[in-house]
Every structure is written in C-alpha cells, then in structure tokens.
C-alpha cells in the first residue's frame, strides 16, 4: 500500500509543496486543520504529517506551538522549504485594478512591504491556496491572493508578480511527525537535534538549574519556548531544541540533571538537521 502524508491546507498550499518535494512517492492528504492532520497519523490513516513550525521572515506559527505540548506524535525529521510567494489574480486582471489581497496571516506578514506598496487591504484567510481558490468563486478582479506558482497552475490564475515576499531568501521550516518514536542510531561525526518538552518542579531556581545542567555539560540550546502548564498560571512547561543525541555522554548527563529538576519530561524526538539549517544560520 502506498504511504500517505497529511498536511493542513488545500492542494497547491506550501505544505502540499513541501510534501511533494520531500516525499514525492507518498500520497498526500489535505486536511482542514492542524488538529485533523495530527489525528490522521494518530489513527493510522496517514503515516506521517508535514507541519510548518516557523518562517525566516515572519517567525513562528503560533497555532503549532500551542499544539505541541498536547500532541501524541514524535518528530522524526525537519525540512526547509524555500517560499516564493506570487501575487495571483483572475486572468486579465491588472495590478492597478486591485483593492485587496488575501492569504494566510504568515504569508501576509512576509509580504507586508509589497502589500503597502500597492496600497492593498490585507485580508487574513485560513491558508494560501484556499485564498486563491476563493478568487474563482468570487470572480472579482479587485481581489488578489498570495500563494505559490503551483496554486496558480492548479486554479488557472494569473501571476501578476513573482517573488512578492519582502525578503528573497524566505524559507519555512517544517517538522515531520510520526506516531512512532524513531530515534536514529548515534554516529560520532553526525550532527543531531533533540527536542524536549518538560515542566519544572515548583522550587526556587528550578529552570536556572535545568539550563545550568546543559551549560556545564557543554550542550548547546538552540531554541527555548515557554507555555503555561497543568491548567495553572504558576507552573510552566518549556520546549527546548538542543544540539546532540541522547546517547552522547554530555547530553546524557544534562538530561539526568533535567530529570532531577523537572516534574515531567517528554522526548519529542531526535533527528538529523536539514542541510539548509547551516546555510540559513551562516
């Protein structure tokens, strides 16, 4: 049976493009929400999910960070998708005819300067390709959408301007999620990222001591995010990404200190960094 990858959006969305680029042999399943995307994997109706985490121009995807503490899936890899936004409209439309443009809030943020240049009213929609699909139903030449060239091809829309994003090296980081906790074998010269969710104990300087354990063991923390945990405003959960594999001696020692000062610890996944990560961080 052909393997399946689930994504949020409609055909032509950037998540669909990322699925096609990374897993061309997989069948793709379009979902209405991120919750549905993850649910399909949890219920074995899809093998993996492709989820956008952050963009190099507009920052993190807020909804995903709210779902991470609750999700039952594990991170098995990351993928960086270059984003080339296009200004799309009905055939025969001219830029001077436009009054508004719609797209996902992330895409609108990534194209803010160009939207202001043409004095367009920005309208937030659920996804990029969905906003383009709406143009077909509306048949209004004063409206445009921001989406991919794949979307233009699929819905027979005209590309009024390519490279509509404000920053040309615009890239979105995706996570690949699986029901299985697949940890790659440790090899000495290979780089790894390990993602962890933990809740600190309610004692003085607990977070300081947790972070100190990584510092004293020379483990680099790439990212840290905080959430209100356990349904209270007094305890916090933290999501960290670190350089390293749990089987490395220094990482193992840091994790032991984490376990001592944390009330709960969940390993979200260990995976090999995508090749684009170093290029974007250079």
UniProtKB/TrEMBL annotation:
It catalyses: prephenate + H(+) = 3-phenylpyruvate + CO2 + H2O. The keyword Nucleotide-binding does not apply. GO terms for cellular component: cytoplasm. This is prephenate dehydratase. GO terms for molecular function: prephenate dehydratase activity. It comes from Sulfurimonas hongkongensis. NCBIfam families: PRK11899.1. Residues 195-272 form the ACT domain. The keyword Ligase does not apply. The record marks 172 as: Essential for prephenate dehydratase activity. Residues 4-179 form the Prephenate dehydratase domain. It is an enzyme of class 4 (lyase). GO terms for biological process: L-phenylalanine biosynthetic process. It comes from the Bacteria. Pathway: Amino-acid biosynthesis; L-phenylalanine biosynthesis; phenylpyruvate from prephenate: step 1/1. Keywords: Amino-acid biosynthesis, Aromatic amino acid biosynthesis, Lyase, Phenylalanine biosynthesis. Its EC number is 4.2.1.51.
């Amino acid at each position: 049976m052909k393997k399946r990858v689930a994504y949020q959006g409609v055909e032509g969305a950037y998540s669909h493009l990322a699925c096609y680029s990374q897993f061309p042999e997989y069948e793709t399943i379009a979902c209405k929400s991120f919750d549905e995307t993850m649910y399909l994997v949890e219920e074995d109706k899809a093998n993996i999910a492709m989820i956008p985490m952050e963009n190099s121009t507009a920052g993190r995807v807020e909804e995903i960070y709210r779902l991470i503490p609750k999700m039952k899936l594990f991170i098995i890899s990351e993928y960086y998708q270059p984003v080339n936004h296009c200004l799309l409209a009905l055939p025969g439309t001219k830029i001077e005819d436009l009054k508004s443009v719609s797209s996902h809030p992330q895409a609108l943020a990534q194209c803010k300067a160009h939207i202001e240049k043409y004095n367009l009213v920005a309208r937030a929609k659920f996804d990029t390709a969905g906003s383009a699909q709406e143009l077909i139903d509306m048949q209004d030449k004063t409206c445009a959408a921001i989406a991919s060239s794949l979307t233009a091809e699929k819905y027979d829309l005209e590309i009024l301007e390519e490279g509509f994003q404000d920053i040309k090296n615009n890239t979105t980081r995706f996570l690949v999620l699986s029901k299985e906790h697949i940890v790659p074998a440790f090899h000495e010269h290979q780089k790894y990222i390990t993602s962890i969710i933990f809740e600190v104990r309610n004692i003085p300087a607990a977070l300081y001591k947790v972070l100190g354990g990584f510092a004293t063991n020379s483990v680099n923390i790439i990212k840290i995010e905080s959430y209100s945990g356990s349904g209270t405003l007094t305890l916090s959960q933290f999501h960290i990404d670190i350089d390293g594999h749990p089987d490395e001696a220094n990482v193992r020692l840091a994790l032991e200190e984490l376990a001592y000062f944390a009330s709960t610890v969940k390993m979200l996944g260990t995976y090999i960094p995508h090749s684009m990560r170093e290029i974007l961080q250079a």
